[in-house]
Amino acid sequence: MEYTVVCSVALVASASTFFSGFGLGTVLMPIFALFFPVQVAVAATAVVHLANNLFKIFLVGKHADWGIVVRFALPGALAAIAGAAALHIFASLPAVASYALGQQIHRIFALNAVIGIIILVFSSLEFLPSFQRLAFDRKYLPIGGVISGFFGGLSGHQGAFRSAFLTKAGMNPESFVGTGTVAAVIIDITRLFIYGLSFNFTQFKELDAGIGINLLVAATLSAFLGAFMGSRMLQTITLKTVRVIVGIMLAIVGMGMITGLL
Questions:
Q1: What angle (nearest 5°) sits at the alpha carbon of residue 98, between those of residues 97 and 103?
Q2: Taking the model in full, what pTM does it have?
Q3: Average pLDDT estimate for 160-181
Q4: CA 213, CA 207: separation in Å to the nearest integer?
Q5: Contacts of 122 (CB under 8 A, 6+ apart)
Q6: 84, 119, 183, 229: which sits with the fewest CB atoms below 10 Å from its CB?
Q7: CB neighbour burial string for 215-243, b if at least 16 within 10 angstroms, e if fewer
Q8: Under a CB-based contact definition with an 8 Å cutoff, are residues 189 and 50 in contact?
């Protein structure tokens, strides 16, 4: 069951990133959170996200605008350190509330609530045409990097802000995808390093079991396939229906995390 769900989501979300500039981390993290603790889900998503973007660099990296990469990704990497540190702080907090539902006790943890709220915010953005059209002047690239990097470190939700700030940077579609991919790799490498230091790898014990590692590998390979498919369909598909479906799914998962049901 988990293989079907995670791999299908990784494939479709990875393909969609070529059109929207974001999607894989936004969608995949909540799916991983169904099977692993939230902090492990964030880190596991970062591994898949990084591997997929390294593969995308092979496909489109030559089109990256390195001037924009420097102005956006370097501040983003520093902010990702702060976001990853915040993730570690929230993960160490005890349950803030609990309640009984039938025979089961459900606990609400601060980390789950924070990530759930972020997911709800991002799910609502999927229904706002104004956000899809949102873009910022090139002079705001460092600020965009900080915002994108911080949320990337905290929950993995960096792509939507990255796309919004890079949209009006004067790039063609190929440069937009290539630049965004390189920036994402820089931020992903930074946050994975901080995750390793802050968790001391003890939080990843659930991935030591064969199914965890195998699921991570399967998700990564599925994302590779999705990226390859997306590169072939870059100019031939729209994602309006996909955005609505994704928004509904994210809203359900976000509410489940906030209420302690997930």
A1: 175
A2: 0.70
A3: 79
A4: 6
A5: 26, 157, 160, 250
A6: 229
A7: bbebbbbbbbebbeebbeeeeeeebeebb
A8: yes
